[in-house]
Each structure stands twice: as C-alpha cells, then as structure tokens.
Amino acid sequence: MTRTNLGRRGFLFGAAGLGAGAVLVGCTSNEPEGQNNQQPVAGGQGANSEPGKQVTIGFSAPAADHGWMAAVTINAKAMAEQFSDVTLNATEGTNDVNQQIAQVESLINGGVDVLAILPFDGKALTQVARQAMDDGIPVVNVDRVFDTPLAYRCWIGGDNYRMGVNAGNYIAEELKRQNKNNPVIGEVAGIDSLPLTQERSQGFKDALQRHGFRVGPRVAAEFTPESGERQTANLLQGAQKLDALWNHDDDQGIGVVAAIENSGRSDFFVVGGAGSRNMMELIKADSGPVKATVLYSPSMASSAIAMARLLGQNKGLEDLAEHEIPAELTTYSAVVTKENVDNYMDVGFDS
User: How many domains does the chain have?
Assistant: First the structure.
C-alpha cells in the first residue's frame, strides 16, 4: 500500500482543513440593521490542519499477517507522517494477547499523550486500556471494541451488519435486473465464531429476505486465501446451480477466485468484502466473476490517528458544531462497482 491510500478518507476527520472554522448565520433579516439578535452558530476550533501542540501517539495493533491488518499499520504510520506536530510510537504487531498488553503498558509508562489501539482481543485488552484512561491518557479504540466504554474515549470501526446488508441489497437488485426467479445465492463467510462474521451474515440474510430471497449454500473460511479456495471448492461441488456468491473477505477472496477459475464455471457473479486493491482491479477489468466489493476499509486507522492528534490538542472536528471528538464513529460500507471503482482505489489495500 502506498501513501495515496490515505486519500479523502484518510483526511476526513479534520486533517485537511476542509472547514471554514465557524458557521455564520444568514445575512437575510427583516430586522433593522444592527438589530439582529441571533447568536452565532457553534462551529469548529480553527483550521485543524495547522500545526498545533506537539502530540505523542502510541499505536498498537495485531500482527500484519493479513492484507487488511497490514494496511491498518501502514495507514496509521503514513497518516502520522503528514503531521509535523505528531510523534508516533508504534509497537511491533503481535497476536499474543499478553505481549500486546505488555506493549501498551510500555507505551503508557513511556508517557504518550494519546493511545490508538486495535486489540487482538477486545475483552483481553480492556483492563490495560482502562488503566490508560484512568491515568488520563485518552484511548482511541479501533474496530475490535473493548468490553466497556470506560476503556476508551472514542471508538472508530466498521459496520459489519450493514456490510452484509449492502452486499445483500446489491446482489438482490442485480438478480432482479437479470430477471432471475428463485435464485441460488451462496455465501463464503469468515470465522463463524467471531461476532463480526455473525453480524455480516445476519445483515446479508436480512437484506435478502427483504427482497424475497434467501441464503443458499454457505461455508465458513478463515480469512486466508488457502481456506477461501478450499471452502469455495467444497461449496461449488455441492451447488450445481448458483446465481450469485458473497465472499466476506477479499484476502480469502484470492482463494475464492482461484477455486472458481479451477472449476471452469461462469454461471454466477461474485461480490467481495473489505475492498482490496486486487479485487478492485478485477472489478475494473470486468473480465471475471467479481463484479463488486463492499468496503470495510483499513483507512479507519488513518482517521484514528487524525482523531488521536485532535484529542491530544483538545480540538473537535472542525466541520461539526460540537467542540469535542464524538464518542463513536462508524465507517460506511460502500459498494464498489465498475461504475465507481476509480473513486475508491485510494483506500484499496494489497491482499
């Protein structure tokens, strides 16, 4: 991933000086000049892109053993480099819960001003995050949520349920456009024991039901190309008829596409999930089964660093009336298609 991945989403939350700093009341009034008693509308706190107080941000995330997770750390580091008033102390990614706890404790003891943490296990990291909050260090919780809001000042993450909804809506509308009756719709999920997978599947099911359709053959993979290929091959062997397939994750989607190519089948289309550059290139080429992907963008890490900076400087989001950073920010799972793919290449990540 290059730094261009920050794009407009990387700077969405006040990092590019988008606002005017204050919202002015209208000039039209029936009152005589000088008699307008309206109060100014609350606004932001100046140009947030301008250098301010120096802020040291501690950053911790799991190991970069997955394209999406690797992009999280890449985006965080690249965003920090955009600010002359930010020093980023990033720990080495780890999937060892105890090691991540120790790393966060080290950041706390090192005197960081703000923490941005994507926990490998939200429940396990809750106590150390709460320790930081109790010590007066604001915590930006990224994606995998801690067990209590007392452990974070702000949460930013994706909308897993709506990701499934938007995938289901796109597939249903496309099948209706093709005049498909009683279509067979498959699903290659992620790890079924994870709440995020359950939420994605529920949203997918609910959206299809709304259109009068249902989920057909379904398998669960493990977010890896190998498991994606293996499980998709199993699904295709048992589904002689298939009209559409939703794959939850574009990293495992590499294997999903490989299994489809190996099968020689071309009787259905595929919608991916997360928004890898690999899948976006396939969508743009429009020469294979992949016709869309639903975003769950790692650019949320860029925004987390931008918000951590503002928290450290006691600023709000300059385009909003509130003086403080919101407690929660949920990213939107846009559907990327051939028609709009160029608009989203900037947030694509390498699988």
Answer: 2
